[in-house]
Amino acid sequence: MKVTLLVTADCGLCRKAEAMLRRLQKKIRFDLDLVDIGADDELFRKYWDRVPVVLADGVEVAAAPVDEKRLAAALGA
Questions:
Q1: Which of 9, 20, 26, 55 has a CA that sits 20 to 30 A from residue 35's CA?
Q2: How far apart are CA 51 and CA 65, in angstroms?
Q3: Residue 10: phi, psi to the nearest 5?
Q4: Cα pseudo-dihedral 38, 10, 16, 37, rounded to 10
Q5: Distance, CA of 55 to CA of 30 (rounded, Å)
Q6: What is the C-alpha to C-alpha distance for residues 28 and 44, in angstroms, rounded to an integer?
Q7: Does residue 8 sit in helix, strand or coil?
């Protein structure tokens, strides 16, 4: 499974979501990509007010504020 974390620079919630995903990687196998939406106008317009946003195989499974238990369930833990 490919998990994408959409973030912005200097985002505390984004850092917390990344830490959650790193912990979950120890239990669930997935590849993690971080994408700064500031580098993509379309992503920025769509997600600027919702980051961090977690996508699993391209499907949104979580957005700010990210709950670790719900995120784990969405990723199949």
A1: 26
A2: 8
A3: 55, 40
A4: 0
A5: 12
A6: 29
A7: coil
Residue listed under structure tokens 């990723």: 75
pLDDT mean by block of 10 residues, the chain; 77 residues: 97 97 96 97 96 97 96 91
Return d(Cα 35, Cα 27) in angstroms, integer: 23
User: How many Cα atoms occupy the beta-carbon half-sphere of 32 within 13 Å?
Assistant: 19
CB atoms within 10 A of CB 52: 26
Q: How would you classify residue 76: left for phi > 0, otherwise alpha for psi between -120 and 50, otherwise beta?
A: left
Nearest partner of 67 among 27, 11, 13, judged by Cα: 13
